[in-house]
Amino acid sequence: MECNHKRKHLKVGQYGGDVDLANIDLMRELWIAELLTIDDCESDPDSGMISIAFANSHGAEDFLSIVKLGEDKDANCNLAERATSFESECDDIWKVNLVSFSLTGDDIRIGVRVLIPESDYDEVLRRVKEYNK
């Protein structure tokens, strides 16, 4: 995936790397929650959605569980349903897919990429911040 947005170096505890400027607050909160990510993109070139790639399925599962914890006022097509029910009839459902990456150049690892509609960014950030309190 090619993502050509302005990036800034971010360091949170043991986690650090260059992240897209528009994602910096969410990435900070994900790292505070100790969710290991391998990449991010503020607007994925293929989907137009925010892309967060986790190093393994556990990180993606924990992230989706955090998102599901928040209160949803609308019983139909709420954020939790759109984030975790991939066969939903709702608009703006999230997408999850596998990504391959290498740590050393010789190895192959499989991670999980979560694609988030840009309209959900503020609420997702609020929920992760709330989780980190």
Write the layout of secondary structure elements.
Layout: E1 7-12, E2 15-20, H1 24-32, E3 37-41, E4 50-54, H2 57-69, H3 79-84, E5 95-101, E6 109-116, H4 121-132
Antiparallel strand pairs: 1-2, 3-4, 4-6, 5-6
Helix pairs in contact: 1-4, 2-4
Strands of the widest sheet, in order across it, are: 3-4-6-5
Q: How would you spell out the order of helices and strands?
A: EEHEEHHEEH
Shape: globular
SS summary, helix count: 4
Overall average residue pLDDT:
90
Number of E-type strands: 6
Can you tell me the residue ranges where pLDDT is under 50 for at least 5 consecutive residues?
none
**Rg for CA atoms:** 14 Å
Helical amount: 25-40%
Quaternary structure state of the chains depicted? single chain
Determine the structural class based on helices, strands and strand pairing.
alpha+beta
Summarize the structure.
The chain is of the alpha+beta class and 133 residues long. The protein has helices at 24-32, 57-69, 79-84, 121-132; strands spanning 7-12, 15-20, 37-41, 50-54, 95-101, 109-116.
Description:
- The protein is α+β, with helices and mostly antiparallel strands and 133 residues long.
- It has one domain.
- The chain is built from 4 helices and 6 strands.
- It has a 4-stranded antiparallel sheet. A two-stranded antiparallel sheet has the order 1-2.
- Helix 1 runs parallel beside helix 4 and helix 2 crosses helix 4.
- The longest helix is centred in the middle third of the chain and has 13 residues, at 57-69.
- The relative contact order is 0.18.
